[in-house]
Amino acid sequence: MRLFPKHISGANVILKRLCVLVSILLVLAGCSKTEQNLELGAGDEEGYLLVGEIKSIDEDSSLLKVAHEDIPGFMPAMTMDFSVSEGDLQNSKVGQRIKARMTRDEEGGFQLKRIWPLSDEDARDLKEYNQRLQKQLRDLPLGRYLGEGDESADFALLDHRGNMLTSDDLRGRPLVMNFIFTRCPDANMCPLSTSKMATLHKLAGDEGLPVSLVSVSMDPEFDTPGVLRQYAEAYGIEGDDFYFVTGPKPAVLNLLRSYGVTAIEKVDTIMHSLATLLIDQNGEILMRSDKSAWEPEAFLEKLASLSSS
Ligand SMILES: [Cu+2]
């Protein structure tokens, strides 16, 4: 369908100008919208949205008993059992409020997927830190992103154990950060980068060098804390100084933007670039590699020089 034929009549010219005006107004409206939807798990479509409180955990049968609120058009408020994934089971705490998608499992029972912990304190942190990050983004000159010598970006996200992690929590010791997503099908990209992070973690541990490692998911709608927990386990990554983090999509996208990491969603994957950063104990970026072939040994050397200085 062609909107504007070659021979544009007077009425069409007016119509065309109106369209242009409306487009400009829409763009302006979009630009002035600063409030971002920082709701955890926003944007999910599968099954029914469920909000509730964990009442008990049955580890042997991988079941959670959850008192859920009314699910409009489907089910009134009640307490019932749900099957959950191993990662979600490990992250669950009695008394915790959660948000999840409710679907049928293979046995015809109900299951919860994409579980996000809900707390007012977390919501406040998400909002406050993301506002700080947005200000940092506004202060960056057009086309620039953070690199060596720059102050690192502020963030608040949830780790793979379901706990809030902020950039301030990480101050006081060096930090290595990279960007991955668990569904990445390209062995030379995220899987390789995660293996290198695991190697660096081990080498630093062997040499007694203090460092925190943070892997930011580029696929926050799929990579919930429970999914990240299973991913960490699959790579044999343990220790409370290694974090896989995720959160509301706008907060994650702002963090990616600040570091100039591109992540373009395709039908069944994400086309993306990579970045690995070494940030010192005061939050300054000391090293940045944009290649998938970054060397853990080079980062280790820099870490050692920090310790000895
Ligand atoms: Cu990847």
Show the helix and strand layout.
Blueprint: H1 10-32, E1 48-58, E2 63-68, E3 78-83, H2 86-91, E4 97-104, E5 110-118, H3 120-139, E6 156-159, E7 164-166, E8 175-180, H4 190-206, E9 212-217, H5 225-234, E10 242-246, H6 249-258, E11 263-265, E12 270-272, E13 276-279, E14 285-289, H7 296-308
Parallel strand pairs: 8-9, 9-10
Antiparallel strand pairs: 1-2, 1-4, 2-3, 4-5, 6-7, 6-10, 8-13, 11-12, 13-14
Helix pairs in contact: 3-6, 4-7
Residues 181, 184, 186, 189-190, 272 line the site of copper (II) ion.
Task: Walk me through this protein's architecture.
β8, α4 and β9 form a beta-alpha-beta unit. The protein has helices spanning 10-32, 86-91, 120-139, 190-206, 225-234, 249-258, 296-308, and strands at residues 48-58, 63-68, 78-83, 97-104, 110-118, 156-159, 164-166, 175-180, 212-217, 242-246, 263-265, 270-272, 276-279, 285-289. It starts with 9 loop residues before the first helix and ends with a helix. It folds into 2 domains: 48-118, Copper binding periplasmic protein CusF (OB fold (Dihydrolipoamide Acetyltransferase, E2P), Beta Barrel), CATH 2.40.50; 146-308, Glutaredoxin (3-Layer(aba) Sandwich), CATH 3.40.30. The chain has a 7-stranded mixed sheet with strand order 7-6-10-9-8-13-14, with helices on both faces. With 309 residues, the chain is α+β, with helices and mostly antiparallel strands. The site of copper (II) ion has 6 residues, from loops.
